[in-house]
Write a structure and sequence with these properties.
- The chain is an alpha/beta fold.
- It folds into three domains: about 190 residues, ANL, N-terminal domain (Rossmann fold), CATH 3.40.50.12780; about 120 residues, 3-Layer(aba) Sandwich (Rossmann fold), CATH 3.40.50; about 100 residues, ANL, C-terminal domain (GMP Synthetase, Chain A, domain 3, 2-Layer Sandwich).
- The chain is about 25% helix and about 25% strand.
- It contains eleven helices and 20 strands.
- The strands form four sheets. Strands 4-5-3-6-7-8-9-10-14-13-12-11 form a twelve-stranded mixed β-sheet. It has a four-stranded mixed β-sheet with strand order 19-18-17-20. A two-stranded antiparallel sheet has the order 1-2.
- Strand 6, helix 8 and strand 7 form a beta-alpha-beta unit.
- Helix 8 packs across helix 9.
- The radius of gyration is 22 Å and the shape is globular.
- The structure holds zinc ion.
- The site of zinc ion (ZN) has 7 residues, from loops.
- Zinc ion binds next to loops.
Length: about 425
């Protein structure tokens, strides 16, 4: 690590161990200053969402900071993250730190850097539950959904329920608001894109599109790029807990936002999957209100090896791909982990597919439900069947079913893959 990152990382580690209540019990695991900050962090336990649940609001705050006064004055807020009940946690939100994290992450792609380099309008299309602390459900006039330079477009829990009128409303608002940036959940933006293409609605073209909140599938990309040809589509990875962690650069790789986090990728065990892939552990930097060390975000990434990225960025980790959530892993006939990215790459051959969900119900039993363009439906089933066999094994028991729509989960997020049985995720990384 270059000196500046190294010293900031050391400061975050030593500050947390010496004056953040939760980490008192971790001090004995620290090998001390004779080791590098990365090595010292690696020796510590991992921080899980259950730890946040048990210790927020004040457990991750530096002792010299007065949490009650901060909450009273509004300098910090207690915010619930999105996701399923098992995933959901409350965190301490410090807006200036979040803004810094967002602005620094924007520097990692030229189109984002240009947009964020000056004041700009941004339209947000996500689940109404996911858009920060705001929640716009039902009929709210456009003016009331604009906060500063942000317009929140969606008002429905389930975007598959958008009718032609709702689509037209969103398009009209985009055309009037003329945002420089559209920030979208890829699944939601893909549904809007397809509806616009089918109805031949002309839509304002922003300077840049940012995909975040969920794993962007190739089927989402395909529809978004059709509606917005020539617009740079940037994938941004982060979480409510950790801020913005990785941005995909113009050469297609993800670079770490070294201004506000340190990242470690803990590989999957060789016997259980591809060791090139690992879970993302994030240490936040310079946020004394909410200091996270080695926080398990619950997602996987594939590290880049070899020469530096063509874009020229070398600071921090370079990641080949974000591979999806740990809890969305499925397993092939040998019991080896299949990431959402593995699956998505294989299924990308099915041209007519606009959405899908794979479910594994036993060691050899897999099903795929999919939404496809009408004219492609029959050929699609065969293509998907073959693609699933290449992923899971020739002897896999695979069924496919064409459906008219796939709705998100209660959390507002779509799941591309899941198992119907429980399994121990910790066991994958031991
Ligand atoms: Zn790059």
């Amino acid at each position: 690590m270059p000196e500046t990152i190294h010293s900031r990382c050391t400061a975050a580690l030593e500050g947390a161990l010496s004056s953040v209540p939760f980490y008192r019990g971790w001090r004995e695991s620290d090998p001390g200053p004779s080791q590098s900050a990365s090595e010292r962090l690696k020796a510590l336990p991992i921080l899980f969402k259950k730890d946040l649940r048990a210790n927020v609001p004040f457990g991750f705050m530096h002792e010299s900071y007065d949490g009650r006064a901060g909450l009273m004055s509004g300098e910090i807020e207690l915010v619930a993250t999105s996701g399923t009940a098992a995933d959901r946690v409350s965190i301490i939100w410090h807006q200036p730190w979040w803004d810094r994290s967002e602005n620094e992450a924007a520097r990692l792609h030229p189109a984002l850097a240009r947009a964020f380099g000056c004041r700009h309008r941004e339209a947000v299309l996500t689940s109404p539950l996911c858009a920060g602390k705001l929640c716009h459900v039902g009929r709210v006039p456009m003016e009331e959904r604009i906060v500063s330079d942000l317009l929140f477009l969606n008002q429905a829990f389930d975007p598959t329920a958008w009718d032609a009128r709702e689509v037209r409303r969103m398009v009209d608002e985009l055309n009037r608001f003329r945002p420089e940036v559209i920030e979208g959940d890829p699944a939601y933006l893909a549904i809007l894109a397809r509806a616009c293409l089918l109805d031949e609605l002309p839509v304002h073209q922003p300077a840049c599109i940012v995909l975040t909140y969920e794993f962007p599938s190739c089927v989402h990309y395909r529809q978004i790029l059709r509606l917005f040809p020539g617009v740079p589509v940037v994938s941004s990875y982060g979480s409510t807990e950790t801020g913005h962690v990785f941005t995909r650069c113009e050469a297609g790789r993800f670079h770490q936002n070294t201004a506000t986090c340190h990242v470690e990728i803990q590989p999957v065990r060789a016997s259980r999957g591809d060791v090139g892939v690992g879970r993302i552990l994030v240490t936040t930097l310079d946020n004394p209100w909410f200091a996270l060390l080695r926080f398990d975000v619950g997602d996987l990434a594939r590290l880049h090896h070899g020469p530096p990225c063509e874009c020229g960025r070398t600071e921090g980790l370079t990641v080949e791909a974000i591979e999806g959530r740990v809890r969305d892993l499925t397993f092939d006939l040998q019991g080896r982990a299949v990431t959402v990215k593995d699956l998505d790459d294989a299924l990308s051959v099915a041209e007519g597919v606009v959405n899908y969900q794979v479910e594994q119900s036993g060691p050899r039993q897999y099903s795929i439900r999919y939404v496809a363009d009408a004219e492609a439906a029959r050929a699609t089933a065969e293509v998907l069947h073959e693609a699933m066999r290449t992923v899971y094994g020739a002897e896999a028991d695979i069924t496919e079913r064409s459906v008219s729509a796939l709705s998100p989960e209660q959390s507002g997020k779509f799941r591309l893959a899941r198992t119907t049985f429980d399994w121990d995720s910790e066991e994958l990384f031991k």
